[in-house]
Amino acid sequence: MTIQILPDEVASQIAAGEVVERPASVVKELVENALDAGATSITVRVEGAGKKLIEVGDDGCGIALGEMQIALARHATSKLRTADELFHITSLGFRGEALASIASVSRMTLSSRTSDEEAGARLVVEGGKERNFEPIGAITGTTVRVEDLFLTVPARLKFLKTDSTERTQIDNLVARYSLAYPHVRFQLEQDGHTALLTPGNGDRREVLANLYGVDLARQMIEVLLQDDGLELTGYISPISITRGTRRDITFFVNGRWVLDSALSTALIQAYRNMIMVGRYPAAALFLELQPEMVDVNVHPAKAEVRFRDQDRVFSAVQRGVRRALMASSPVPDLQPARWTTIFPQPPLVSPDWQMAAEAEDGSDTHERRDNSFDTTPNKPQASVLPSGMLPLLRLVGQIGSTYLVAEAPDGLYLIDQHAAHERILFEKMMAHTEGAIPSQALLQPELVEVPPHSSRALTEQVELLRPFGFDIEPFGANVFRVRSLPVILAGLSPAAALQTLIEDFEEDETPLQGQREARLIARICKRAAIKGGQTLAIEEQKALLLDLESCRSPRTCPHGRPTMIHISIDLLERQFGRRGAR
Predict the structure, then answer these.
(1) What is the rounded distance in angstroms from the CA atom of residue 560 to the CA atom of residue 78?
(2) If we measure between CA atoms, which residue out of 279, 28, 305 comes closest to residue 175?
(3) What 3 state SS string does 370-403 have?
(4) What are the backbone angles phi and psi of residue 527, rounded to the nearest 5°?
(5) Which of 127, 103, 105, 87 is nearest to 290 (CA)?
(6) How confident is the model at residue 329 (pLDDT cuts 50, 70, 90)?
(7) Structural domain boundaries, residue 479
(8) 58-to-33, 38, 107, 370 alpha-carbon distances in Å
(9) Are 32 and 92 in contact (CB under 8 A)?
(10) How far, in Å, CA of 23 to CA of 168, rounded?
(11) What is the Cα–Cα distance from 577 to 575, expressed in whole angstroms?
C-alpha cells in the first residue's frame, strides 16, 4: 500500500475520537472553556441525553469578531505560545483541539461578543465545514450550541450507553465542577427540567447541600493541609457514611478534574481499618501546587496527570485526610461490662445428630436440637449433606457484636450476622414476588428531598417500585411524597428507605446482573439487614441461625459474599498437633 496524507476531515474525526468520547466529554470541554474565559455564570442545556442538543452559555470575556473563524481551527488557542509554557499550564484548556474536534462530528453554532465591541458574531459549522458567518446583536459572553452529535460518524452512537446513563454522566460532571468553582453560578437543564442550580456565592458547603442534601452536607468533614507550596482542601465523609463504589470520590488538581489511581489509593488508605473492606468514602478534594510540579499534557482529554514528586503528593493526601478523620472521630468509650457479662451456660446434654434417628421418632429437627455434641470418639458423623446445605448448628455466642460462633458435627462456623440476615430477607422477599410484597402505610405521608442528580432516576422507578411495597410519588422539584414502605424497612425513616433506591448498584452485585427485580430486592435487603456492631440477644442469635439453615443458598449473601467461614474438626486437630500433617 502506498503512503499518503489523510484528508483534513478524516484527520479531524480521528482527533475528535480522542477528545469527544461521549456527550459528557463535550460538556466538559465547553465548561472548561467558559471557566478559562472568566465566567461567573454558566448555563448548560441538554436534550436527548446530549445526542440531540448540548448548549453551554457563559458571561465570560467572549471571542473577538475577527477571531471567531480561527477559533474553530485545529491547534488554535489563546492560552499557549511556546513549548516551555507546557510545563507551566495555569488554564484548563491549552491544546486548541476541543472546538475543532466537536465541530467535526456535529452541527455547531458559535455565538459570542466581547465587552469592547458593539456587536457580536454567529458562526455555523457542520461536519467541520463553515456554513454561515454573520454579525449579530449579543450580550457579552459566549454560547456554543452543539446539535446532532456524531452526525458525521453515526457508528459512534452505537457505542454510547443508555440515555439514562449518559444523562447521569453529565449530571455528575457539572456537579463536580460546581464544587470546584463555588464562586461560579451553574445551571443545568436536562430535557426542560432543572437538574442543578447553584448560588455561586463561594460557599462550597452550600453547594454540597444542593448536590447531596442538607443532612449529608452538614456531616461532611472539612480537610485543610498546607505543606511547603502544596495545599489540600475539600470535604470527606465521616466513617459512618460510605458508598459501595468509588463514584463519589472526586479530585481536582489546580482546578482540573483528574482521574488518578494514586490519589484515590491515598484517600482509601487514610480510611484503612476505619470502614469495611469493599466500602468507600465520599470525598471532594482540591489539590493546589506549583504548575511545574504537575504535567497535564498526558492525554488529549486532559483527565490524567503526572506528578514530579508523586510520593510527596500521596503522603500529603493521606496525612491530610487521616488528620481530619482523627480530629472529628471521638475516642471510643469502652464499656468493661460488655466484656465481663457472663451468659448462662446451656446444659451439656448430648444430642443425636443422626438424621435417621430423628426421623424414627418423627420429631421436628429444630425442636430436638440440644446444646452440645457427644464427644465420644467413635460417634459417627452426620451423613453428607446436599451441596450448599448446612448441618444443624448449635449457637456458641457472638463475637465483637458482628459475628456468630456456631458448632456443628463437622467443625466450627463463624457467621457474619449482616450477610446472613441479608440472605434470609432476600429469600423471604423473593418468595413474595408473584404477589405484592407486604407494605406498611405511614400514619402521615412524609415529604423527602433527594439530590437533584438522583431525582430523575427515582422518578423513572416509581411504577416499578409499587409491587415492592413502596408507594411514592413526585411532589415538586426533587421532592417525593412517601405514603408506604415495605414491612422489612419499617424501622427506617422514609429518607433512609429512599436512599436504598437511589444509590447506584454496587460493583459486587455482578451475580445479579440482568435480574432487575432481584437486584432491587437485594439492595433493599442490604439496607434492612442487621448491621455489624449490633449486639443481639441470645434468642435473636438462635433465630438467625434457624432462619439461615432453612435458606436455599445459605453460604452467600445476595451479592455473592460469604456469610460464613467453616473450620473443620480435621483442621483444628492438625493445628493443635493432635494429628500429623497429611
Answers:
(1) 53
(2) 28
(3) CCCCCCCCCCCCCCCCCCCCCCCCEEEEEECCCE
(4) -75, -35
(5) 87
(6) low
(7) 384-582
(8) 9, 9, 20, 75
(9) yes
(10) 11
(11) 5
Confirm whether 338 is domain-assigned: no
Which CATH number do you get for residue 115? Answer: 3.30.565.10
* Residue 376, domain member (yes or no): no
Please state whether beta strands 249-253 and 230-236 pair in parallel, antiparallel, or not at all (unpaired).
unpaired
295 and 148 assigned to the same domain:
no
End-of-domain residue from the set 145, 166, 201: 201
Task: Please enumerate in sequence order all residues whose Cβ is within 8 A of that of 431, keeping only pairs 6 or more positions apart, or say none.
Answer: none
Q: Is the dihedral of CA 62, 67, 68, 71 positive or negative?
A: negative
b/e per residue 205-232 (b: at least 16 CB within 10 A): ebbbbbbbbeebbeebbebebeeeebeb
pLDDT for the residue 222: 94
Report the SS3 class of residue 568: strand
Total structural domains in the chain?
A: 3
Total count of residues recorded for the chain? 582
Give CA–CA dist 135/121, Å, rounded. 4
Rounded Cα gap, residues 92 and 89, in angstroms: 8
**Domain assignment of residue 68, yes or no:** yes
Provide the whole-model pTM: 0.69
Q: Give which of 380, 412, 415 is closest to 569, Cα–Cα.
A: 412
Last residue of a domain, one of 133, 168, 201: 201
pLDDT for 375 beyond 50: no
Q: What is the pLDDT of residue 336?
A: 47
pLDDT tens-place string over residues 89-138: 666 766 667 888 899 899 999 999 999 999 999 999 998 888 999 999 89
132 and 102 in a common domain: yes
Binning the chain into helix, strand and coil, the percentages to the nearest 5 are 35, 25, 40
- DSSP β-ladder status, 185-190 and 193-197: antiparallel
Q: Are residues 257 and 171 in the same domain?
A: no
Residues 417 and 523 in one domain: yes
Assign residue 401 the CATH number of its domain.
3.30.1540.20
How far, in Å, CA of 512 to CA of 489, rounded? Answer: 21
Q: pLDDT tens digit string along 481-503?
A: 999 888 777 667 788 777 766 66
Residue type, 374: D
Report CA 401 to chain centroid distance, whole Å: 28
Q: Which residues contact 132 (CB under 8 A, 6 or more apart)?
A: 122, 123, 124
Report the C-alpha gap between 293 and 88 in whole angstroms: 9
Pair (39, 77) in one structural domain: yes
Alpha carbons 188 and 438: distance in angstroms, whole number: 39
The answer to whether 536 and 398 are in contact (CB under 8 A) is: yes
For 202, residues 6+ apart whose C-beta sits below 8 A from its C-beta are: 182, 183
195 and 231 both lie in a single domain: no
Residue 147 pLDDT > 50:
yes
What grid cell was written down for 472?
411514592
Instruction: List the CATH number of the domain containing 250.
Output: 3.30.230.10
Q: 167 and 74 in one domain? A: yes
Residues 196 and 252 in one domain: no
Asked, for residue 359, whether it belongs to a domain, the answer is: no
* Contact indicator for 34, 140 with CB cutoff of 8 Å: no
Q: How far apart are CA 292 and CA 422, in angstroms?
A: 51
Residue with cell 476531515: 9
